[in-house]
């Protein structure tokens, strides 16, 4: 088996806000085609790490390589080209409230591409269908949608430019168990169908069991360990043991092991 391709490499990352050090000597590789779950306790900087990779947060020091090139060495045009190769779903969906779902999806198309309105309308309709929303969701505003539908609309916007990587920040937060399970299944199907690489910040153990190939645990200001669910179960670190062996962890494991309903 050939060695996996690293498409994002984080090395010796330090994030600091005033006197508070969030990350120190943090290293992480993200492999093409995997679903990577980022977990950690409150204050470990899961979303800060995501925003550092995206370029929203500027680290104090360290190196982030994306598709083989350091972000710090990129020209503005190179950064824009890289940003076309990923999509982002923030925790609250981050949809523009004054735009319809279809118009939200078209924002990235207008920013990066020059195409007729009719073609943009057709692309938006395709993306709406891709995430399991009905066609009538297109002309609606975010306030007219349920929480689960807003998540799907945000995902449709993240997929607007046919990205190679999708970043998800707590994608199932605020959803009921049925809605969260359906969203996990959607991500899993899209990853398999489109060949996506998925970087997912989550606290949802069910999501980790359902769709993640690998998990990275943030603790002690760095990525403490990476590995599969099975490898997480063998770790001796107190937080990891409590997280994966606690009541919620046992419930998630039982749900994963249960035979499918007929």
General description of the model:
With 262 residues, the chain is an alpha/beta fold. Helices cover 39% and strands 24% of the residues. The chain is built from 10 helices and 10 strands. The strands form 2 sheets. The protein has a 6-stranded mixed beta sheet with strand order 6-7-8-3-9-10. Helix 6 links the parallel strand 7 and strand 8. Helix 4 crosses helix 5, helix 6 runs parallel beside helix 7 and helix 7 packs parallel to helix 10. The longest helix is centred in the C-terminal third of the chain and has 18 residues. The model has no long low-confidence stretch (mean pLDDT 92).
**Number of helices, counting only DSSP H or I runs of 4 residues or more:** 10
**What is the residue-averaged pLDDT?**
92
Cα Rg: 19 Å
User: What is the spatial order of strands in the main beta sheet?
Assistant: 6-7-8-3-9-10
Give the amount of beta strand, in percent. Answer: 15-25%
Main beta sheet: strand number and arrangement? 6 strands, mixed
Order of helices and strands: EEEHEEHEHHHEHEHEEHHH
Structural class: alpha/beta
Number of strands: 10
Helical content band? 25-40%
Shape: globular
Given as residue ranges, the uncertain stretches (5+ residues, pLDDT < 50) are none
């Amino acid at each position: 088996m050939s060695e996996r391709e690293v498409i994002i490499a984080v090395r010796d990352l330090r994030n600091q806000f005033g006197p508070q050090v969030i990350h120190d000597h943090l290293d992480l590789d993200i492999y093409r085609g995997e679903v990577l779950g980022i977990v950690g306790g409150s204050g470990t900087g899961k979303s800060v790490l995501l925003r550092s990779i995206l370029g929203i947060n500027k680290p104090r020091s360290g190196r982030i390589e994306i598709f083989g090139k350091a972000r710090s060495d990129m020209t503005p045009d190179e950064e824009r080209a890289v940003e076309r190769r990923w999509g982002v779903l923030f925790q609250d969906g981050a949809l523009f409230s004054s735009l319809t779902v279809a118009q939200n999806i078209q924002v990235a198309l207008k920013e990066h591409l020059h195409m007729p309105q009719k073609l943009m309308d057709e692309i938006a309709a395709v993306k709406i269908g891709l995430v399991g929303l009905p066609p009538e969701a297109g002309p609606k505003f975010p306030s007219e949608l349920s929480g689960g539908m807003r998540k799907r609309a945000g995902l449709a916007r993240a997929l607007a430019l046919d990205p190679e990587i999708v970043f998800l920040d707590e994608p199932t937060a605020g959803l009921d168990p049925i809605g969260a399970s359906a969203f996990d299944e959607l991500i899993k199907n899209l990853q398999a169908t489109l060949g996506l690489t998925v970087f997912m910040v989550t606290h949802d153990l069910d999501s980790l069991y359902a769709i993640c190939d690998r998990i990275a645990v943030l603790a002690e200001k760095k990525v403490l360990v990476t590995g599969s669910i099975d490898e997480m179960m063998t770790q001796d670190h107190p937080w990891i043991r409590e997280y994966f062996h606690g009541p919620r962890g046992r419930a998630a494991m039982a749900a994963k092991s249960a035979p499918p309903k007929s």
